[in-house]
Design a protein that fits this description.
By secondary structure, the protein is mostly helical. The protein has seven helices and no strands. The two termini are 37 Å apart. 9% of the residues are buried.
């Protein structure tokens, strides 16, 4: 199990434990709590953690499979091959569904699949990440607020950088030019 998946599971269990142990009364513990409120609080806590840290492919696929299960589609747990590539999920043996029946659940859950390769070879982006981390570091040293990309966030980082960087500011452009040419 990967570190990110283990961390996500730990956060979910911790959030559910904290929510389950909560009480609406400050002086008397009570078993009469609103289950809907508990679930919403736990979901909010998990969503906050998920938004903070990008998920690896296995965790994304597990989130997709769980979402599909919640929609009534019976999938097996995702498999990862010996090279670390996540494979397409398979239906549980004996479970049948038509393409039309699968359409609505897939639409509700497909956002979990963004960026997955499904067992195809992964491109090594370590050199690109190193280059953009050096760029971000240089720009930060010049006073610009630029986060570091990771292999998982590289595409989104690039898109955000193109939109958020002030390309109309001559000083920002000069800093970018200087940092881009620095080796």
């Amino acid at each position: 199990m990967t570190n990110n998946l283990a961390r996500l599971i730990l956060v979910i269990v911790s959030a559910l434990t904290l929510v389950a142990c909560g009480s609406n009364s400050s002086d008397v513990p009570s078993l009469n709590t609103d289950d809907t409120q508990r679930v919403e609080s736990a979901t909010d806590a998990v969503d906050a953690v998920v938004e903070e840290e990008p998920l690896d492919d296995e965790a994304k696929m597990m989130a997709f499979v769980q979402c599909m299960r919640d929609e009534g589609i019976e999938f097996k747990d995702p498999e990862v091959d010996s090279e670390g590539n996540v494979q397409r999920p398979e239906l549980v043996e004996g479970f049948t569904i038509t393409r039309e029946e699968l359409e609505a659940p897939y639409e509700a859950c497909s956002h979990h699949l963004e960026g997955l390769t499904f067992g195809r070879g992964r491109e090594d982006v370590s050199e690109q990440v190193d280059t953009f981390v050096a760029l971000a570091t240089c720009l930060r040293n010049k006073g610009y607020d630029v986060d570091d990309p990771t292999a998982e966030t590289l595409d989104q980082w690039g898109a955000d950088f193109r939109v958020e960087f002030d390309w109309d500011d001559p000083k920002a452009m000069a800093a970018y030019e200087e940092c881009s040419s620095a080796d």
